[in-house]
Write a structure and sequence with these properties.
With about 375 residues, the protein is mainly α. The chain has 16 helices and 7 strands. It is flat.
Length: about 375
């Protein structure tokens, strides 16, 4: 039996080798590979026939292009513009532009600052900024989750001079005008802020925030851009972030320029907080800088009929203090009356010797006391 042992060891080594070869074969690679499904927004397992079959869809995998076409420039990780994934740009398209019939005709490159669909380009600010000093704010961190909130009142800043107050702004004309501005003066804070305000009117908060982030990446202390971003976050009820950006905008506003808009925005935020006293101060300051501003006057009238929470607290404190004072006075007067009553009564002392003598003589002690009281 001993001469069969080497054969058994060789057989075991052969089986292990076959198992290793089979585990590394093409038939099992698919289970260890993953691909990005852009439509579903998930990372899924790649099928065997997808990786090594006749289907070459894996060549168009966005995540695969990111991994294989990376490069480092000036210490930053970048992706070649010819093969860069445009997942963020696809999320910017509307539902009509995302129809399955036109999926094969979509072409987008981040080297250009717009998304192309046929001959029409979507007005964007290009690739998002890598970093700004305001990215720590929660409203900016969660910019991809914000709902769409249109701000039609923003269109007033695009109204032509001399136009009537009731005249509407042609959004198609405005979009073409901003596209021309983008070609003439690209990569400037003014261009990015105007495109951001355009998307505020449309209600796309994500695109507008990205445009303002690009403007702040170039000019981090721009008071106008800070105020625009604060208005967006205020509408989204990120009050702490909005008040921080508005105060920053007010601090960065030059002294020779009017700051009524910053004071008005601070008044609205503080009113939403319930700080009516401080809010009224900012509304009054806005009216001094912009007399006759109806919205500030309306806020002041509204707060005049609303009880101030701080005044209500002070009133309750005064009432409690008065009640405690009255109770303390009643208790003190009762103690004083009791002491006076005790002092007015005659004190009776027990005379033990007289009591013993009266007991021996058989005299009633009460008779003796009565005689003393009668003066006998």
């Amino acid at each position: 039996m001993t001469y069969d042992l080497p054969c058994m060891s060789y057989m075991a080594m052969y089986l292990i080798s076959v198992h290793i070869v089979n585990s590394n074969s093409r038939s099992s690679v698919g289970a260890n590979h993953w691909r990005l499904n852009v439509e579903e927004g998930k990372v899924l397992k790649a099928d065997d026939d997808l990786l090594f079959g006749n289907n070459h869809e894996v060549d168009d995998d966005a995540m695969f292009r990111i991994i294989t076409n990376q490069r480092i420039e000036d210490g930053q990780w970048l992706v070649d513009s010819q093969t860069e994934c445009t997942i963020n740009d696809r999320s910017m398209l509307t539902a009509e532009q995302e129809s399955p019939k036109n999926d094969q005709n979509k072409k987008a490159t981040t080297g250009k600052d717009s998304v192309t669909k046929g001959n029409k380009k979507l007005l964007t600010c290009g690739k998002p900024a890598n970093f700004t000093q305001y990215d720590h704010l929660r409203g900016i961190t969660q910019r991809g989750e914000h709902p769409h909130i249109p701000e039609p009142e923003v269109a007033i800043m695009f109204r032509k001079k001399g136009a009537k107050a009731s005249s509407d702004v042609d959004m198609t004309e405005l979009e073409s005008r901003l596209k021309k501005l983008k070609k003439q003066t690209p990569r400037t804070p003014s261009t990015y802020s105007q495109i951001g305000n355009f998307w505020r009117i449309k209600g796309n908060t994500q695109l507008s925030i990205e445009c303002f982030r690009k403007a702040l990446a170039i000019s981090p202390n721009s008071p106008d851009v800070l105020l625009y971003l604060a208005r967006i976050l205020f509408n989204l009820q990120f009050l702490d972030d909005a008040i921080f950006l508005t105060r920053r905008s007010l601090a960065m506003q030059p002294e020779n320029e009017n700051s009524w808009h910053q004071h008005f925005t601070l008044g609205e935020i503080l009113k939403a907080y319930g700080h009516y006293q401080e809010a009224s101060l900012h509304f009054q300051q806005a009216l001094r800088l912009n007399p006759g501003f109806q919205r500030a006057e309306a806020h002041l009238r509204d707060m005049e009929g609303t009880p101030n929470p701080s005044m209500t607290q002070y009133t309750l404190f005064i009432i409690l203090f008065l009640i405690m004072g009255v109770v303390f006075g009643v208790i003190t007067s009762m103690e004083a009356n009791y002491e006076e009553t005790t002092e007015g009564k005659p004190q009776r002392h027990f005379n033990r010797a007289m009591a013993m003598r009266s007991m021996k003589l058989g005299i009633n002690p009460r008779l003796i006391r009565m005689r003393k009281m009668n003066g006998v």
